[in-house]
């Protein structure tokens, strides 16, 4: 299969891969960057995320979703996972995803959310897009 | 502070790599493919009713923890495996084990793993790595994905050990305590092969094993018409990510398993196992062809003849070969 190092998207770390040579009938392992074809599908996952985050950003700007919804998507989370990280019931988080519910969040809860996302409370209240 | 003399070796898959390296530390030399095969790492399931990252779940592996548990159990090795409610307690237990001289396997989430390459920073909670010491608030880590040894702070380690979401690790830590002398690996190999052969060809449920691959093939053929090009490409991409991404050693663990069969043929002195190992290698290459052509569809650079129909046909071939291989393997002790 074709391999052109210049075309690689990710060159942060080399991993170990096994392969099978059908001619010599041997298994070999080698250390290298992820195959180019696989890098394409890894990038596809990230591109899809970026698209969703952009959609969420627009909805926050339009005032149909709260900034919390934006950060949740940005951090690839869904309600059950965020609930796990915050120790909140899922129902409470769903409420906070709406602009109306978001306005009523207590300072203490804001701090918990901000800590999960590694951001300041200010950034959570008014994200810089 | 303590820093154990632990050898860092990269591996194709995190859990089989950790198992092999941990046992190696205890002077029991076992290759990664061997640990993978005895630990029954290979699997297939397609679960369309479960969605992860907005696409149906396809899995090429067994549940987290199974490889270490099954491999050590089959080999008669005493282990200590714990989970925790309280994060601070889990860190205390880790320190104690390290101070006693045991390198410790840890199940962690990768999203907050500071040394992980950014392209892999997803909420993946089934990752495994080894702590082999600490100095103050810094831990020495061997991660089989990463080229070099790495370090992690107390706070970061606590965070990744208590990652939340599907398959949350709950601080799970595990290590061999005692490796008896004169282990005979032959019965363990046979037991492992039988179990995997059953999982792949003997489970009477359409979404598991070779049957599951056929089911996926049938669904995949319909995706472009049913979901539209965009979503079909995303669903396909998700299958390929599970098959080829980090920690599968390529082709959804099929190379790793083939290498295991090859080694098993030597140990058990069975030539027919070697033949099956070669078939497995060729089938792994078939899976690679599937992901290679599939990635062109994801890039929308596929020629018409490389469409979903062709991909579905390749999957059917993979299923047929695997069914044949595992049917034969299931008769290993007869």
Structure overview:
The complex is a heterodimer of chains A (129) and B (334). Chain A starts with 14 loop residues before the first strand and ends with a helix. Chain A has seven helices and two strands. Chain A has a two-stranded antiparallel sheet with strand order 1-2. Chain A is mainly alpha-helical and 129 residues long. In chain A, α1 packs antiparallel against α2. Helix content of chain A is 54%, strand content 11%. Chain B is of the alpha+beta class and 334 residues long. Helix content of chain B is 50%, strand content 16%. Chain B is built from eleven helices and nine strands. In chain B, strands 1, 4, 5, 6, 7, 8 and 9 form a seven-stranded antiparallel β-sheet that branches. A two-stranded antiparallel ribbon of chain B has the order 2-3. In chain B, α2 crosses α3, α3 crosses α6 and α7 packs antiparallel against α11. Chain B is globular, with a radius of gyration of 20 Å. Chain B starts with a strand and ends in a 5-residue tail after the last helix. Chains A and B meet through β1, β2, α1 and α3 of A and α8, α9 and α10 of B.
- Quote the average pLDDT of chain B: 95
Which word captures the global form of chain A? elongated
Cα gyration radius of chain A (Å): 21 Å
Beta content of chain B: 15-25%
- Radius of gyration of chain B over all CA atoms, rounded: 20 Å
Taking the sheet with the most strands of chain A, its summary is:
2 strands, antiparallel
How far is it from the N-terminal to the C-terminal residue of chain A, by CA? 42 Å
* Biggest sheet record of chain B: 7 strands, antiparallel
Q: What is the overall number of helices of chain B? A: 11
